[in-house]
């Protein structure tokens, strides 16, 4: 709890108060320096209402991890610095030099100066929160303002106790969005903005972030209650113009010290003014509206209900948890029938019971909560508060409870004190006892791995020395604590090793592998008894007069790199462990390898290549690799992957013999020394000189010889002479002579000798040629031709025997030493598309089934045992003409106009005339005689019976005769079109006419699918169609009144369109006048009335007359009939409740009138009442006129009423539906 320390105003604008405060600070500093140093906890003091309030921090110690409180160590009081806070929220710090320093928050204040003295207590305002942080071994006090957002645009309100304090500069006012550069980012989350909650939102206590303004109500109210009486009266005696501090929707929060002041407690804001017994003053409040007073009363009752929550009860207490339960708020004020409404509860926990040390651990609607993760044997303080919507009640009484004791916490890992060859000294620190004194410690030891632990010590001491251990051995230790409640868990393990002896000298290193610039060495571990200690090996190499280390490690091998080639090096090895280093081993000498030489250069020919040898030469390599060349190797290849060594020696030239002429050879050379083999030189490609090819092989007849051709083939020579054969030559000798004739020259291995004589013998020779020249001729080959095929036949003789037949005959051709055994007759209508129609030894043939008057082509081909002879000459013949062919495609022709019931339109395709022009056609209709028509492909047959089926056939006629009849076509004539129906007018109106047709027997005759076309005559002689469809009635609109119209109708069916009906004349009626408005009645004089009504314009030349009636009940009396628009009469009718109405009529020229509807009636006041009312109006000087509602005013009133109802419905939907969501 916050308690007042001393009186006085710390932030007033009086200079004397600043001097007094400075003087008090200096006096306290001197007293603190003269007093003996003693440990005192840090105190944070604030200035509230001109009084310094001290808040004692929590006792030092580790707190609950769920609460995460600020842990402050005890500090030595060296000097005291007073930080004064004015209305601008500025800190005033007087340092040792005496110059005042103004600091605006948030700012870190040093707690430990460079001189090493401890920091003094710091006095803070109530809206600031101190936090201790440690940075680079220096403790700092981080001062942060409260989460209320500062609005710089609003000026600070007048404060009674600081009324004469001058306003500070704007630069000294702290801003909620400005932080110093040295402030750590993870401290910025403590500064929040103020969330605004309306009365319709959900309870903020049930959310993750609570309202900061509600959390400040309880500390502020308690500080106001704990003030002295004089200060409280000063605060309560505010001027009447001070703004209202009640928390309501839409109210602007007041400012305090440059920050937005949160809404105050509803209990304090709604409290009535109290009378100050000491000063005799009474606080005066401004008048409020009745709605504001009701809202404040509701808030006050809600605050009292929320503040009635009972303190929590602790049950099921253990060392780590506790169950807290409490009664709901308002449970005492409700009966069993009325359960208390559900509220949201906040449960706060603390370890010091200080006001700012409570931390919320639960927020929800349940009244029971289990707190876990508590520390054993620790005293806790707990309280609960309730909230509903934006109202939060005060906290309940604080309940204190202490958790049960528990076994100790696990100790920290033990530490090694001393180490020898046979002993180890171990110590450890005391862990937390958790409320019960530690009785003993258990130390366990394990040799080697962390398993099979055995007990080494059990007692109350915190250190122990183990003896009789093995040298150079690794041991593992762990420790546990025990009290009356049990044994704690074991600590983390400690691994250490006992001391040992220095190792003996090792064996000299051995050469594992050698390279041009590296040597790979290996060595063995030192000899002696086995040890568990780790050995470190040191490899040294001689460089100049001394040995220098090359490798240090636990490995038993190493490769020394970056050495020179063909150089000797000296090495030795040393071994070291934790006890020392051994003597060096014996020195050994090893050589690096030589580098392979470079490849020989300039491999070339010494002379041009011959047919069977080549002479090569090359130069020595530029670098021999540090070792002389031992020999050269010359390799030869005539393929891509097969190389053969043909020379090995020290000479740099060589002649390769025994080569084949013509192929391409590849030559390369490399050298070798002690370091290895060099790279091969560049490849030299050489081709030997070619020679003439050898004779060709196997000259023979490749296929069957014909009577004029012999096909020949041969094989390439075995020896091509080193160059590919590119050409062959063939010669032939005829049987009658000895001279040879040249037949062929080319690269092919086959040839066909043509234009030879049948059954003759010929001799042939062949030879090959390449780049070097021609080779020898092959051996002669004899071959004979076969017998010849027949010769060419002459044109056959064609004799026409009729329109569809003719006879062909021919003569036998030359047989060529073989008799003709068969003749082929080819026949067709086209010269290029002939087909074989006859095969046989006969020399004549008769052709039938031909087309009349058609030209045909014919030719003969002879065949014997030797083959088929050439095709003979072509012969042409034409058959005789005949009657036309059958007429095809006979069908009924579709016409665009409606078909006639007595006509049929036919069309067909013109048939083939068969050599004689078609003269006409005969149409056969069945029972009637055929109808002859001219040369046409379509014809209209008339004079037929309607709706009758006919079987139609057509035949063509030419000069030879009539052709066959076509296939039968069934055609049916169309039926007769329908007659027009009767037309009549069923409904007659001024602007409409409804016509109907098809009544009586005429409608019954009409079939389904009939359409009707209604025509109306316009101003001229045109009869446009006004309707076309299947209906039997039609209504014409937008017609003139009193006008005669002419109509006619016709029926349309599939058979065609029927004739138009005679003209029908119908006249529209005349429209009556419209209904008039209610007449107006005026009292002209005593017992004299004037009735007026609206006038109408003449309608189409007809005058308008009016009739005025006087009504009483169901009785009606006509008082006027004429063209005037007003009427005046004298005399008051007997009785009362008389009404007047008017009606307009249309006067026709022949004397009759067409009357409209009567208007609404108007009530007529009694003359006696009007007489009695007239003097009263004269006495008052007013002439009261009757006010009538016009149509415009009536429409406006209806629209206004509809708008008001719509707004009310929208408000109800907003209140009942949207707010609930």
UniProtKB/TrEMBL annotation:
Question: Transmembrane ranges?
Answer: 1193-1218
* Presence of keyword Transmembrane: yes
Ranges of Polar residues compositional bias?
Answer: 276-289
Which stretches does the entry tag as region Disordered? Answer: 1-64, 235-294
The source's domain of life comes to: Eukaryota
Q: Give the matching SUPFAM superfamilies.
A: Fibronectin type III (SSF49265)
Residue intervals of the Fibronectin type-III domain: 308-409, 410-505, 507-595, 599-691, 695-788, 792-882, 889-976, 977-1074
Basic and acidic residues bias: where?
A: 31-41
Offer one Pfam family short name for this entry. fn3
- Keywords annotated in UniProt: Membrane, Transmembrane, Transmembrane helix
PANTHER family (alphabetical): E3 UBIQUITIN-PROTEIN LIGASE TRIM36-RELATED, FIBRONECTIN TYPE III DOMAIN CONTAINING 3C2-RELATED
Its protein name is Fibronectin type-III domain-containing protein
Q: What is the taxonomic lineage of the source species?
A: Eukaryota, Metazoa, Chordata, Craniata, Vertebrata
């Amino acid at each position: 709890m916050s308690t007042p320390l001393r009186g006085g105003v710390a932030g007033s604008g009086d200079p004397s108060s600043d001097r007094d405060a400075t003087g008090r600070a200096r006096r306290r500093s001197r007293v603190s320096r003269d007093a003996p140093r003693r440990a005192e906890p840090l105190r944070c003091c604030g200035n509230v209402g001109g009084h310094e309030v001290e808040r004692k921090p929590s006792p030092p110690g580790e707190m609950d991890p769920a609460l995460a409180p600020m842990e402050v160590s005890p500090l030595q009081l060296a000097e005291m610095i007073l930080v004064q806070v004015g209305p601008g929220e500025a800190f005033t710090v007087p340092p040792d030099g005496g110059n005042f320093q103004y600091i605006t928050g948030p700012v870190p204040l040093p707690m430990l100066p460079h001189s090493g003295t401890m920091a003094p207590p710091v006095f803070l305002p109530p809206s600031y929160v101190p936090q201790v942080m440690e940075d680079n071994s220096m403790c700092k006090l981080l001062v942060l303002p409260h989460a209320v957002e500062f609005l710089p645009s609003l000026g600070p309100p007048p404060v009674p106790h600081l009324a004469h304090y001058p306003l500070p500069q704007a630069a000294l006012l702290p801003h909620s969005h400005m932080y110093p550069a040295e402030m750590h980012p993870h401290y910025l989350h403590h500064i929040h903005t103020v969330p605004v909650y309306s009365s319709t939102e959900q309870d903020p206590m049930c959310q993750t972030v609570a309202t900061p303004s509600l959390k400040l109500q309880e500390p502020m109210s308690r500080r106001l209650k704990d003030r002295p009486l004089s200060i409280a009266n000063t605060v309560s005696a505010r001027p009447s113009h001070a703004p209202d501090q009640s928390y309501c929707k839409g109210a602007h929060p007041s400012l305090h010290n440059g920050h937005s002041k949160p809404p105050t407690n509803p209990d304090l804001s709604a409290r009535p003014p109290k009378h100050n017994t000491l000063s005799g003053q009474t606080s005066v409040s401004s008048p409020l509206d009745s709605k504001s007073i009701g809202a404040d009363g509701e808030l006050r009752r809600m605050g009292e209900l929320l503040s009635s929550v009972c303190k929590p009860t602790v049950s099921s207490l253990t060392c780590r948890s506790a169950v807290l339960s409490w009664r709901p708020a308002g449970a005492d004020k409700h009966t069993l029938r009325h359960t208390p409404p559900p509220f949201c509860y906040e449960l706060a926990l603390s370890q010091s019971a200080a006001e700012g040390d409570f931390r919320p651990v639960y927020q929800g609607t349940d009244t029971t909560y289990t707190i876990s993760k508590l520390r054993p044997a620790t005293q806790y303080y707990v309280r609960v508060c309730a909230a509903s919507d934006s109202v939060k009640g005060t906290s309940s009484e604080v309940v204190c409870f202490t958790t049960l004791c528990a076994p100790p916490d696990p100790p920290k890992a033990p530490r090694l004190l001393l180490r020898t060859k046979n002993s180890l000294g171990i110590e450890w620190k005391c862990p937390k006892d958790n409320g019960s004194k530690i009785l003993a410690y258990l130390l366990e030891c394990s040799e080697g791995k962390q398993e099979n632990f055995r007990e080494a010590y059990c007692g109350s001491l915190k250190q122990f020395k183990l003896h009789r251990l093995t040298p150079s051995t690794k041991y593992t230790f762990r420790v546990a604590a025990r009290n009356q409640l049990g044994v704690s868990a074991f600590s983390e393990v400690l691994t250490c090793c006992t001391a040992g002896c220095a190792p003996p000298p090792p064996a000299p290193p051995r050469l594992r592998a050698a390279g041009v610039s590296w040597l790979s060495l290996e060595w063995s571990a030192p000899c002696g008894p086995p040890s568990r200690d780790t050995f470190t090996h040191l490899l040294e190499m001689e460089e100049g007069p001394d040995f220098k280390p090359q490798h240090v490690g636990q490995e038993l091998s190493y490769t020394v790199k970056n050495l020179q080639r063909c150089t000797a090096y000296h090495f030795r090895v040393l071994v070291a462990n934790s006890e020392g280093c051994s003597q060096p081993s014996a020195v050994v000498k090893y050589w690096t390898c030589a580098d392979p030489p470079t490849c020989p250069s300039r491999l070339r020919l010494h002379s041009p290549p011959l047919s069977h040898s080549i002479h090569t030469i090359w130069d020595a390599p530029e670098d021999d690799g540090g070792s002389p060349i031992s020999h050269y190797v010359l390799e030869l290849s005539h393929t891509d992957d097969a190389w053969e060594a043909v020379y090995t020696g020290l000479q740099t030239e060589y002649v390769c013999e025994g080569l084949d002429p013509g192929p391409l050879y590849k030559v390369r050379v490399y050298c070798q020394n002690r370091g290895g083999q060099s790279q091969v030189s560049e490849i030299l490609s050489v081709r030997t000189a070619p020679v003439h090819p050898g004779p060709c092989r196997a000259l023979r007849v490749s296929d069957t010889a014909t009577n004029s051709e012999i096909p020949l083939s041969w094989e390439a020579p075995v020896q091509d002479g080193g160059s590919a054969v590119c050409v062959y030559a063939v010669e032939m000798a005829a049987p009658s002579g000895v001279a040879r004739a040249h037949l062929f020259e080319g690269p092919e291995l086959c040839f066909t000798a043509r234009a030879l004589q049948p059954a003759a013998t010929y001799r042939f020779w062949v030879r090959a040629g390449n780049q070097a020249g021609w080779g020898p001729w092959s051996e002669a080959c004899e071959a004979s031709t076969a017998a010849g095929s027949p010769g060419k036949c002459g044109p056959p003789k064609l004799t026409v025997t009729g329109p569809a037949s003719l006879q062909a005959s021919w003569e036998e051709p030359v047989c060529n030493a073989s008799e003709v055994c068969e003749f082929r007759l080819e026949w067709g209508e086209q010269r290029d598309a002939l087909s074989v129609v006859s095969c046989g030894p006969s020399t004549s043939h008769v052709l039938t089934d031909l087309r009349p008057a058609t030209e045909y082509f014919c030719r003969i081909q002879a065949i014997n045992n030797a083959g088929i002879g050439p095709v003979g000459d072509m012969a042409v013949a034409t058959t005789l003409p005949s009657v036309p062919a059958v007429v095809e495609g006979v069908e009924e022709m579709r016409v665009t106009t409606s078909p006639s019931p007595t006509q049929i339109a036919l069309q067909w395709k013109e048939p083939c005339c068969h050599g004689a022009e078609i003269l006409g056609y005969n149409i056969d209709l069945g029972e009637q005689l055929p109808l002859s028509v001219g040369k046409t492909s379509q014809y209209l047959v008339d004079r037929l019976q309607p709706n009758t089926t006919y079987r139609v056939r057509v035949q063509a006629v030419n000069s030879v005769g009539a052709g066959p009849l076509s296939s039968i076509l069934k055609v049916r004539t169309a039926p007769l079109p329908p007659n027009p129906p009767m037309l009549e007018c069923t409904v007659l109106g001024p602007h409409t006419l409804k016509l109907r047709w098809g009544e009586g027997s005429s409608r019954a005759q009409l079939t389904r699918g009939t359409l009707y076309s209604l025509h109306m005559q316009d101003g001229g002689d045109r009869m446009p169609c006004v309707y076309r469809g299947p209906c039997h009635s039609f209504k014409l609109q937008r017609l003139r009144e009193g006008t005669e119209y002419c109509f006619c109708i016709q029926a349309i069916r599939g058979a065609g369109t029927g004739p138009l009906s005679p003209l029908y004349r119908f006249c529209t009626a005349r429209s009556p006048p419209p209904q008039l408005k209610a007449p107006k009645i005026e009292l002209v004089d005593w017992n004299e009335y004037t009735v007026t009504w609206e006038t109408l314009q003449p309608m189409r030349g007809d005058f308008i007359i009016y009739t005025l009636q006087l009504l009483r009940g169901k009785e009606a009396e006509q008082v006027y009939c004429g063209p005037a628009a007003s009427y005046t009469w004298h005399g008051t009718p007997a009785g009362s409740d008389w009404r007047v109405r008017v009606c307009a009529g249309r006067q026709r020229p022949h004397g009759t009138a067409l009357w409209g509807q009567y208007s609404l009636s108007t009530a007529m006041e009694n003359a006696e009442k009007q007489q009695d009312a007239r003097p009263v109006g004269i006495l008052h000087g007013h002439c009261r006129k009757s006010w009538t509602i016009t149509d415009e005013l009536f429409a406006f009133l209806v629209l206004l009423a509809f708008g008001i109802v719509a707004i009310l419905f929208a408000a109800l939907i907003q209140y009942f539906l949207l707010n609930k969501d």
